[in-house]
Amino acid sequence: MKHEGLLYIISAPSGTGKTTLLKRVMSYFPDIRFSVSYTTRPPRSDERDGKDYHFISPQQFQQMVEKGAFAEWAEVLGNRYGTALDSIRESRFQGVDLILDIDSQGARQIGEHFNGGVFIFIFPPSLEALRQRLNDRKVDGQEVIQFRVAQARDEMKQAKWYDYIIVNERVEEAAEQLKSIIIAERCRRERVLKRIGISKL
Ligand code: 5GP
Predict the structure, then answer these.
(1) Contact (Cβ atoms closer than 8 angstroms) between residue 29 and residue 182
(2) Which of 103, 154, 155 to mutate to test the pocket of ligand 1 (most atoms within 8 A of CB)?
(3) Which of 4, 16, 63, 132 is least crowded, fewest Cβ atoms below 10 Å from its Cβ?
(4) pLDDT tens, residue by residue, 10-53
(5) What are the tens digits of pLDDT across the range 91-101?
(6) Is 8 a pocket residue for ligand 1 (Cβ < 6 Å)?
(7) Contact 93, 108 (CB under 8 A)
């Protein structure tokens, strides 16, 4: 029997450098799948439909909510984001580990419905550094940046129930830490025994 795929749930306030970090780590683990969320947010210039997100209309999103198609969903900064239940079920069934890049509201829902999730929170080095990064990104205006920083401060409080915190000061170091967590979690006693088919030592 195949082992059940693990769920790595990664949350970070926007501007924490999470996308770069995840890209690095994903390229190190070709066997890990990235969960592509559904969102009502319009795509940014460098984003591709089906790769970064499934970009859908608010009506389509609502229909999926009503059909119970989401394992979790949440509203973040006026847009809705959700993870399809089918893709989680499929990965778990295939024994493929999945990375979910979702906010803490969604993470909590995953924690309530699935066993064995690994919850990882990415912190910016400081709120000032976050403000600076959001400025440099040149995506949002000052008002939105101010709001995002306030949101980040709030969101970071949720890290209290996560398993791990990574402070993303230098992306190389943060990537090493994330890799280490993934490797260590794969070596947990109960998971290894299950994977190699030993039910009792
Ligand atoms: P962004 O618009 O910057 O890509 O993402 C905004 C926030 O939405 C981020 O905190 C991101 O983790 C979160 N997010 C992305 N996809 C999902 C999802 O499927 N569910 C939930 N709950 N949050 C998501």
Answers:
(1) yes
(2) 103
(3) 63
(4) 999 888 989 899 999 999 999 999 999 999 999 999 899 999 99
(5) 999 999 999 99
(6) no
(7) no
- Torsion over CA: 146, 40, 158, 156 (sign): negative
Query: Collapsing DSSP states into helix, strand and coil, what is residue 38?
Result: strand
Pairwise CA distance, residues 88 & 113, whole Å:
11
Q: pTM for the full model?
A: 0.94
Q: How far apart are CA 188 and CA 185, in angstroms?
A: 5
Whether 35 is in the pocket of ligand 1, judged by its Cβ within 6 Å, is: no
Domain boundaries, the chain: 7-195
- Index of the ligand 1 atom closest to the CA of residue 41: 2
Q: Could you identify the atom of ligand 1 that is nearest to the CA of residue 77?
A: 6
8 Å CB contact between 112 and 163: no
Give me the residues paired with residue 9 across strands: 100, 119
Q: Which residue's alpha carbon is at the smallest distance from atom 21 of ligand 1? A: 102
CATH number of 7-195: 3.40.50.300
